[in-house]
Amino acid sequence: MVNSRIDAAIESILDNYGRAAGIFDPNRLEVWEELGLTMSQLRVLYMLQAAPGTPAGAVATQLKVRPSTATGIIDRLVDKQKLVRRERDDSDRRRVRVFLTERGHKVITELDARKRAVIWRIFRNFSEQQLADIDHTFTLLTAEAERQGVLAPWPPDPEVM
């Protein structure tokens, strides 16, 4: 009996999560399409915003892809979109660090502004307790996902190779 209630609750959460994700998708998809960005490229941009100078190897680790795949993603962000730049590490010439360009910062700022405007408009109608409950739920969700290795810790450690 308990399992069926838990299963039903999980199914309801999955349904509501899918619907809630739709709140943000129209804005994100519009900007992604304008810029020709992929989800992986967007993840790299946010990673570099949180941890400027992340080594290229750590980008691969955070994305859970091979270094050659991460190199291709970074190449496109450097060469085509001009959103990131590479720099050799002065302390270890073999290590390449990746940074957002000014244009990269502007893209992230625009994406965040659009997302935040939608979130603020919606959340303004909730009580203080409801907001605390939502925050607590997301904290539990992300902590458990990190514990299980489903979600990389945030912000990423720029020294991880």
Q: How are the elements arranged and paired?
A:
Layout (H helix, E strand, L loop, with lengths): L1 H34 L3 H12 L3 E2 H8 L3 H13 L4 E6 L2 E9 L1 H22 L4 H20 L14
Antiparallel strand pairs: 1-3, 2-3
Helix pairs in contact: 1-5, 3-4
Labels describing this entry:
Arc Repressor Mutant, subunit A, three-stranded antiparallel sheet, 68% helix
If you had to describe this structure to a student in words, what would you say it looks like?
- The chain has 161 residues and is mainly alpha-helical.
- Helices cover 68% and strands 11% of the residues.
- The protein is built from six helices and three strands.
- The protein has a three-stranded antiparallel β-sheet with strand order 1-3-2.
- A hairpin with a 2-residue loop joins strand 2 and strand 3 (92-100).
- The chain is globular and about 55 Å long.
- 14% of the residues are buried.
Might you state the CATH topology name of the domain at 37-147? Arc Repressor Mutant, subunit A
How far the N terminus sits from the C terminus, by CA atoms, comes to: 46 Å
The average pLDDT score comes to 88
Q: What would you call the quaternary organization? A: single chain
Count of distinct strands: 3
CATH superfamily of the domain at 37-147, please? Winged helix-like DNA-binding domain superfamily/Winged helix DNA-binding domain
Content-based structural category: mainly alpha
Uncertain segments are none
The outline comes out as: globular
Work out the helicity level: 55-70%
Q: What pattern of helices and strands is seen along the backbone? A: HHEHHEEHH
Radius of gyration: 19 Å
Beta-strand percent range: 5-15%
The number of helical elements comes to 6
Strand order of the largest sheet: 1-3-2
Q: Would you identify the CATH architecture of the domain at 37-147?
A: Orthogonal Bundle
Q: How would a crystallographer describe the biggest sheet?
A: 3 strands, antiparallel
The CATH class of the domain at 37-147, by name, is Mainly Alpha
